[in-house]
Design brief:
With about 130 residues, the protein is an alpha+beta fold. About 40% of the residues lie in helices and about 10% in strands. It is built from four helices and two strands, in the order ααααββ. A two-stranded antiparallel ribbon has the order 1-2. The two termini are about 30 Å apart.
């Protein structure tokens, strides 16, 4: 749901404001060239490829958590973490493992987390806070 141009503008803003950026994901989301091509072209995936993606999603979530915890120990300042909204679903590893956070996420008009563009094209933003 985020275009490359939007991400590029955010990176440039951080550069000009001297805000440090740290990548916490696998290169190319862990997708090999075949998966990259199929996803880009919205081609059908085999069951083996779907299983491969499921395993990559688990690997990525674990890596995200590891990196967040690593950098949380390195600073007393708040961390700003940009993730796809799929990683913010209610039963996600991050939401169940982290404490003391505020999440801003795209939602529909009923406040439900959006993980893809809504049919009516209306996107709102909601907030969840957890303090423990």
């Amino acid at each position: 749901m985020t275009s490359f141009d939007e991400v590029n503008r955010l990176i440039e803003l951080c550069y000009h404001k001297n805000i440090k950026l740290i990548g916490i994901d696998l290169p190319n989301f862990g997708f090999n060239e075949i998966l990259q091509s199929k996803i880009k072209n919205q081609s059908d995936l085999s069951s083996d490829e779907e299983n491969q993606i499921e395993e990559l999603l688990k690997l990525r979530e674990n890596l995200h958590l590891k990196k967040i915890l690593e950098y949380k120990e390195k600073t007393d300042k708040p961390l700003i973490i940009l993730l796809g909204s799929w990683h913010l679903r209610e039963n996600s590893l991050l939401r169940n493992s982290l404490t003391n956070y505020k999440i801003f996420f795209p939602c529909d008009k009923r406040g439900n987390l959006l993980i893809e563009s809504p049919e009516d094209k209306e996107i709102n933003y909601c907030e969840i806070t957890k303090n423990e």
